[in-house]
# Entry
Amino acid sequence: MLLLSPNTGTCFSASDDVLASLWRLSSAIEAVHNFLPDEYKVRKIGCRYDIKPKNILCMNGKLVLSDFGLSRLRPEEESSRSLFPRGEGSYIAPECEPSDKDFKPARVGRASDIWSFGCVLSEVLAYLSAAPGDGPDAVVKFREARKHNLGPLISRHFHTVDGIAPAVIDLLSKYTADPSSTAVFKSLALLIEEILQFDPENRPSASTITRRLYQLSQRDVFDKICVNFESCLAPLDLDLQIEFRRLKIWGEIVGLASEGRDIQPPAWLTHCHSHREYEDTQEILRRCLVETQNIRMQMDKNRNPPYKLAYHLQSILDSLWDMQPDHAKRSMASALEESILGSQDITDLLGLQEHNDMTSHTVAGHSNQRLDNYRRVAYLATMKEVAVAVTNQSSSNQDLSVDRSSLGPPTTKVNEKARL
# Structure
């Protein structure tokens, strides 16, 4: 069992891969709750009923939901609620327990699966947040800390008779209340708090959880890419400076530059997307992380390498931009212009027109639109410099004299193979 293994290497190469698998696991629960296969023209709703670590397998670097013996599918027009068929263990929802009043099990549904999944996530949080190699001990300690009296029995449930178990509250508050807590663990703890609601009606849907888990795992990758960028930016390497701006702008449009609960429409991550869209975006981000790691190593060896470092990175970021709808791409292009024109180091940015590395290579997939964007940024940057010079001419401390009759567009011809 992964949670009791001393290292993630038995299934995952790193803890980051565990985070990246959680949203896939949630999407499997979502598929059970809303069974809508287009190829069969069938629409069903279902309930898994028995989600716990023992029913989650680790196969080829992925977490796989297994043992569907208690699962039920019903017509879409019916409710998923039914009498709790069977099941035991610490991960069942409060409504699965017999009532103190009549000792009869309540009617349970998809919200009960959500509770159980939140319990699993809390143990994953305990495992991942522990020091390397201490994950299993942290899980065992968390299980022991949950021991409490539930009627005449000793229980390790995540709830007591009338609320969340104190040990669970303590674990989550350790990350939600501590300012020094890492962003990814804080986001995961906040999500678990939203899931573990005593009232089933207050729990989020599986699709919402999938989106939130995807957001926190990709934000972790996004932040690491930004760290790599910041460590390898050189003052005169305009290619990397521009690509860093493009990454940040994309992150803001998508929603990765915001906290999980602070994302506002129309950010891409405020909406649910297909599994394929999630997978494609995740793969491109991973490629971007690997490429920035390579650039960082090269910069450590030579701060002024004789070759273009951002060559492959530009193509990767093109892929991220191209996945967005047209209105979002227009918004990102405008934001890039504003970012460049608002730069304090406008003189260096004017080197766009003369920067040979930027203008002397061809990248597969470049378009006339990108060439037009490049020209526009270069022209606007030049216009701003001229406007600043004209304004400063009236200053008594300004010796610059501007010949207005000679003002015109940039004199250096933009190479037809240039790209943004």
User: Anything to note?
Assistant: Residues 213-406 form one domain. The radius of gyration is 27 Å. The CA atoms of residues 228 and 293 lie 6 Å apart.
